[in-house]
């Protein structure tokens, strides 16, 4: 009996607790609803509604002539607010709308789409995604003519949410240089480097969270409209870019190489006209994975010998005609042997020949002799040429060159001799190109530029002017000798395989062993850097190909032909690089002697002595002849202060007098009268500029 009472007591107590808990729930619910209702309503609104960022339309990237390199194309997601259309409009158009949706997307039947629309209408759904496939602008225009949708956004319920997609009209052309940007504002190339300008200013819009975790845009007066990004006009020449990439790709395939790059720059402006970087994918293909030209560090190898010669010519009394003995091509410095690529060595040669044939031993011996006790002086020349610090180019990610210095850890007795021929330190290919471009540009070193202007429509917001890094890399005398050396490399030295017939190339080959885990391997970095036409440089370029496989392992046979192919194409396309063709003149030698041009007083006296009728149309010191029956007439010859004279047809004596009077540095070949001149008559004559004449 006591047990029964105990059980009943416990049951009553438990029941009482349940009743009290229920009362507490009712009281709390009433308190929340009536006392704290406003607070929780506002919180619910904050949870269901939110201001979200609306991405601005990204600016375009253009080539130098306005061709699109990158643009944002508008695509749309289509949704439907089933509560907006009037009953009559919905009932009349739902069948046709379902048919159009089924026919366009081809993923559901007309009946399925119709049922989806009717169910959404009955449920008063304000946002239902009709299809997750993105449509383009033309598709959007078509859909806006469909039944129900044609009533407009507020009466037809059609919701088109814009999504910008980045598009590259030229596909992979210069893809790494153009670059990319991801959702976290991380990326590479121009897209990343100029993200602030291209990205514009994002806006903000009111969104409501509905079932399924979907955010529906809500039109609100407080929405902030996005400001579209600015455009970039680059210096890239699309045609030249295609030529450069094609030539590089062909060489990469031919030599089964690992990585390669090419960059072409305009001498006077520093504008990069083409830049390409290719890497092997391991399956016979190549793609752009890294901008080696701007951000890669490499030992420059023999292309650095230009710096060595510059320092020697500026700081010592050596002459290019001086002799140096390189023996069998081997020389030991502090228990380390320096070797030439010539198997049997060059023996005793002039310094000019040693440079042209790229002797490592010669460069190392000369630098050790003249700078061995003062290595910092040599490094000072490297600093003077801006090779030890970033150039400050417009593409983010430029590394700091790795230059060893006397007194620092790792510097030893062999460091300076190694440095003399481009080993023991690393710089970017654009550093090397900027240096050679300075030689072509009368000693003025300018910063490479790849973006010409930032624009808003057709108006320039910012223009990037030519920026001079060094007004004079060396004296004028040294500069003339360096140009002579670089032309000699192509005419007589390691790059004579690319010697041209219509124009001259000046440059230097380079071959450096690849350093791997502190040891030099039997793999090579081959390169060629130079400028053209040599007498009046307009373009400079660098080609670098890493780890070519096969018989060809040197810059002369791997990189130099790529340079020549690009240069030939530019020469063929640019009519301003061509000299006008001579009009052949035929004379009757039995009647008149060959009289073309010269000093009028002397020619008149000669004709009078020979009994040849001659008349002067105008009185000038220097004239050209035109035939007039059995006589000749004299007309003014092209010449004057600051002008390249017309010396074709003149004797060598008269030609060299006029050319040197104009301040030109004359080089010639052959005998007799002048048949050709490398600079067109009437062009601006720059003091000290080289001109070549051919006599016949």
TrEMBL record:
One Pfam family hit: PBP_dimer
Principal location listed in the UniProt entry: membrane
Domain PASTA stretches: 638-696
CDD domains: PASTA_Pbp2x-like_2
SUPFAM superfamilies: beta-lactamase/transpeptidase-like, Penicillin binding protein dimerisation domain, Penicillin-binding protein 2x (pbp-2x), c-terminal domain
Domain of life: Bacteria
Organism taxonomic ancestry: Bacteria, Pseudomonadati, Bacteroidota, Cytophagia, Cytophagales
GO molecular function: carboxypeptidase activity; penicillin binding
Localization (cell): Membrane
Statement: the UniProt record of this protein carries the keyword Membrane: yes
GO BP field: cell division; cell wall organization
Family matches, as InterPro entries: Beta-lactam/transpept, Beta-lactam/transpept-like, PASTA_dom, PBP_dimer, PBP_dimer_sf, PCN-bd_Tpept
Keyword terms of this UniProt record: Carboxypeptidase, Cell cycle, Cell division, Hydrolase, Membrane, Protease
Keyword presence, Repeat: no
Descriptive protein name: Cell division protein FtsI (Penicillin-binding protein 3)
GO CC terms, sorted: plasma membrane
């Amino acid at each position: 009996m006591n047990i029964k009472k105990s059980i009943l007591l416990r049951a009553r107590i438990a029941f009482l607790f349940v009743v009290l808990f229920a009362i507490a729930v009712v009281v709390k619910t009433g308190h929340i609803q009536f006392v704290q209702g406003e607070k929780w309503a506002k919180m619910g609104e904050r949870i269901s509604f939110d201001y979200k960022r609306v991405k601005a339309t990204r600016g375009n990237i253009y080539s130098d002539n306005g061709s699109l390199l990158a643009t944002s194309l508008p695509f749309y997601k289509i949704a439907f607010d089933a509560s907006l259309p009037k009953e009559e409009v919905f009932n009349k158009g739902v069948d046709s709308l379902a048919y159009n949706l089924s026919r366009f997307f081809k993923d559901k039947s007309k009946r399925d789409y119709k049922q989806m629309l009717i169910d959404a209408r009955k449920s008063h759904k304000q946002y239902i995604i009709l299809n997750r496939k993105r449509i383009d602008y033309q598709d959007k225009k078509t859909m806006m003519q469909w039944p129900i949708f044609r009533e407009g956004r507020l009466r037809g319920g059609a919701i088109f949410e814009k999504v910008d997609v980045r598009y590259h009209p030229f596909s992979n052309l210069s893809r790494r240089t153009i670059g990319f940007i991801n959702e976290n504002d991380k990326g590479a190339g121009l897209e990343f480097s100029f993200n602030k300008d291209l990205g514009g200013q994002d806006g903000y819009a009111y969104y409501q969270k509905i079932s399924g975790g979907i955010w529906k845009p809500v039109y609100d007066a407080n929405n902030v409209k996005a400001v579209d990004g600015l455009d970039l006009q680059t210096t890239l020449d699309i045609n030249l870019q295609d030529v450069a990439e094609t030539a590089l790709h062909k060489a990469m395939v031919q030599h089964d190489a690992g990585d390669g790059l090419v960059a072409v720059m305009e001498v006077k402006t520093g504008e990069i006209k083409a830049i390409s970087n290719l890497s092997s994918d391991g399956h016979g293909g190549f793609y752009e994975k890294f901008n080696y030209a701007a951000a890669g560090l490499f030992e420059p190898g023999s292309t650095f010998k230009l710096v060595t010669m510059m320092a020697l010519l500026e700081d010592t009394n050596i002459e290019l005609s001086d002799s140096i003995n390189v023996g069998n091509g081997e020389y030991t410095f502090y228990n380390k042997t320096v070797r030439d690529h010539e198997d049997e060595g060059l023996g005793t040669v002039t310094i000019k020949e040693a440079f042209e044939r790229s002797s490592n031993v010669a460069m190392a011996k000369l630098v050790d002799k003249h700078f061995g006790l003062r290595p910092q002086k040599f490094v000072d020349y490297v600093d003077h040429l801006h090779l030890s610090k970033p150039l400050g180019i417009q593409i983010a990610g430029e590394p700091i060159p790795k230059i060893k210095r006397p007194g620092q850890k790792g510097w030893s007795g062999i460091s300076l001799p190694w440095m003399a021929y481009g080993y023991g330190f690393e710089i970017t290919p654009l550093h090397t190109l900027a240096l050679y471009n300075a030689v072509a540009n009368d000693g003025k070193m300018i910063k490479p530029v790849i973006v010409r202007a930032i624009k808003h429509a057709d108006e320039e917001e910012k223009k990037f002017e030519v920026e001079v890094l060094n007004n004079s890399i060396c004296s004028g005398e040294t500069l003339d000798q360096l140009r002579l050396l670089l032309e000699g490399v192509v005419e007589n030295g390691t790059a004579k395989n690319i010697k041209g017939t219509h124009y001259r190339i000046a440059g230097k080959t380079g071959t450096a062993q690849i350093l791997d885990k502190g040891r030099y391997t039997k793999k090579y970095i081959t390169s060629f850097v130079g400028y053209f036409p040599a007498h009046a440089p307009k373009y400079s370029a660098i080609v670098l190909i890493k780890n070519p496989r096969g018989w060809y392992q040197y810059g002369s046979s791997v990189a130099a032909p790529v340079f020549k192919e690009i240069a030939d194409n530019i020469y063929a396309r640019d009519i301003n690089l061509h000299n006008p063709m001579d009009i052949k003149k035929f004379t009757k030698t039995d009647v008149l002697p060959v009289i073309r041009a010269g000093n009028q007083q002397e020619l008149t006296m000669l004709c009078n002595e020979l009994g040849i009728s001659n008349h002067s149309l105008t009185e000038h010191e220097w004239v050209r002849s035109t035939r007039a029956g059995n006589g000749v007439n004299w007309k003014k010859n092209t010449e004057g202060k600051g002008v390249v004279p017309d010396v074709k047809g003149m004797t060598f004596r008269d030609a060299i007098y006029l050319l040197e009077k104009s301040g030109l540095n004359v080089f010639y070949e052959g005998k007799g009268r002048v048949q050709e001149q490398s600079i067109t008559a009437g062009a601006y004559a720059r003091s000290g500029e080289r001109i070549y004449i051919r006599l016949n």
